[in-house]
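Morning F.,

Quick status update on the modeling queue. The single chain you submitted on Monday has been processed. Sequence for confirmation:
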Amino acid sequence: MESTKKQVSLEVLPWLVVHTDGTLERLAGTEVCPPGLDPETGVLSKDIILDPKTGLSARIYRPDSIQPGQKLPLVLYFHGGAFLIASASLPNYHTSVNKLVAQANIIAVSVNYRLAPEHPLPISYEDSWNALQGVKAGNEPWINNYADFNQFFLAGDSAGANISHHLVFRAKQSDHTVKIKGIGMIHPYFWGTQPIGSEVTDEARKQMVDGWWRFVCPSDKGSDDPWINPFADGSPDLEGLECERVMITVAEKDILRERGKMYYERLVKSKWRGNVEIMETKGKDHVFHIFEPDCDEAKEMVRRLALFINQVDA
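Structure tokens below.
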């Protein structure tokens, strides 16, 4: 009897495989959970549409105990997943954002940008910009009633941190009606053709990340495309970063660690006039807080992010 099992033509591990008939099979990041009241954190969430034309959606969060007239910092959050997997409704991300909202006492909007390869880059970036515009449009009661736009932050992990970086520059190119207070970049997904730091000796993981980027953004620039390498030819100068504060977190065992540290060092040395801080977590790997949300290191990272968001201007 002839086997009906599909044949694999391309593996983009550990995220997905492409079959010979052109269909995709995602190997991770496909689980979903509903919004609602989280009894552990006391955070309430619901799903909203930000752009009816494309169906762009998000999950919005607020403390259930918020009082009428109370205004809280607003965080627009972008999940990770190499632009290939995950969503705002992935249980791990839902848990993570619940914890951040509870710790920082904020309003958060977690964006469901469309994923590659079905929606090639830069669609993820365009969706994220449209999400920012949708949040500012004033159509969502939770935002109108409870969000303080004088304390408007972007945040994200991995690919989401990359998106946050690019949106700050996009905001600068707009009519300056979008004012971003700061960005929180968790284990940012930046890369480059030339290996640095541990990438030099870790050839297997270097080649793996190279392969991820080639798959989502095939171009002659490879890993020196400005979308992924903020220091490649054609990338805007960090001096022009249109926000006041930046926090970068890196993890000791993360292959992307050196890129986050380089971003911090370049920002410090630039003529940018804002304040930047960096936090390194020892003994942990990429986005460990998503997979181990209750470990001490994850709790400390969320605590530091909350302090960053809520710090009082001098």
